[in-house]
Amino acid sequence: MFKQASDARVAVFVAPGLEEIEGLTVVDLLFRAGIPCDTVAITPERTVTSSHEVTIVCDRSVTEPGFSFDDYDMLVLPGGIPGTPNLRACEPLCSALAEFSAAGRPLAAICAAPSILAELGLLEGRRATSNPGFQHVLAEHGAELLADESVVVDGNLITSQGAGTAMLFGLEIVRHFLGDEAVERVRAGVVLR
Where do the DJ-1/PfpI domain residues begin and end (predicted)? Predict the structure, then answer.
């Protein structure tokens, strides 16, 4: 049962071909922490198929009437191929990422997805990491690359390396909204030592 612990609301964007662990782990941990979260399809259809043929039915779509990025306190980008290029091709999402960054509002991206932030010029001078196969994109666009870190927090920006770091990534999002005590409670609940 969901027990709300925060007034913040998080959007996890779901593109065809996403890495489902990177998206759904975040959703699961936010649920456990009591942080409201929506899965948001970038397609008109709310049903999206992941890179490993897992079908995800999203809460919302960016194309539906009344949808607004401003309803959210953080935008989260899972990685995956072709999920990441599909996210990058979503113009409304890319515009919202730039607006959030300019306003100092929180963004989080994992695996290949930090490359989207880099290509949009949002990582220049910022500490960040990504999947090793995409770290050159971050470096080429002026990020201070922390290549060996599982998760990097730079103010309102959280980046991470991939499916294997998804739980740590999700916990940093929990920490952003609710602090260390909530992180320890969620860690204990999922038996993460």
Answer: 9-175
